[in-house]
Design a protein that fits this description.
globular, Aminopeptidase, 185 residues, 7 strands, single chain
């Protein structure tokens, strides 16, 4: 899984790369389940090509159904949550445990037209709390270097990060133990 927040264009926020800190209201964050499968697939289907490229590293991912199933089927190694507003899925965040103890790969996708409202940041903060309570103390993500919104989202969450560039990709690592605002379990 790859982390990704996607920019908006036009009237959706101008693609400035800055969060404006408007929290969606009312927004509910909860674990995903099998009944959310169609909503997860629909969220990706409604993204434009650039948004899909920034999240999946291809504008036309062929594995969306498998990915959605991995997020909505019960699993011991995948934790997935969704943000809902008025019953509509507006964002998804998940992590997958890695072989290295205490590490998990994190990913986020926010619905088209919902960017720069704090959805991704709220999902990351909630997922970080769940991770800490489950013994995960590091998130890692491979993102396109051009995806400034991911870095902005992590900054807005208040998490210290290390970043290593490898060609077009950045490997971002978050030390959740150093994130002071995450409540200790």
């Amino acid at each position: 899984m790859r982390a990704g927040a996607t920019p908006t264009g036009g009237s959706d926020g101008g693609g400035t790369g800055r969060m404006d800190h408007r929290t969606p209201s009312p927004m509910t964050i909860r674990g995903l389940h099998s009944g959310d499968y169609d909503a997860v697939v629909g969220l990706v289907a409604d993204l434009n090509a650039e948004e899909r490229y920034l999240r999946f590293l291809t504008p036309y991912p062929m594995y969306v159904g498998e990915w959605a199933l991995s997020l909505t089927a019960p699993s011991d190694h995948v934790v997935a949550i969704g943000a809902f507003e008025s019953g509509e899925l507006i964002g998804v965040a998940n992590y997958v445990g890695l072989p290295r103890p205490g590490y998990a790969e994190v990913a986020v996708v926010v619905a088209h037209g919902q960017h720069q409202r704090g959805v991704g940041t709220a999902l990351l903060m909630a997922l970080g709390q769940i991770a800490k309570e489950s013994g995960v103390n590091h998130f890692v993500a491979d993102v396109l270097a051009e995806n400034q919104l991911v870095r902005d989202m992590l900054r807005d969450a208040g998490w210290p990060t290390t970043q290593r560039r490898d060609g077009e990709l950045l490997r971002i690592e978050v030390n959740l133990d150093a994130a002071g605002h995450i409540a200790r379990g």
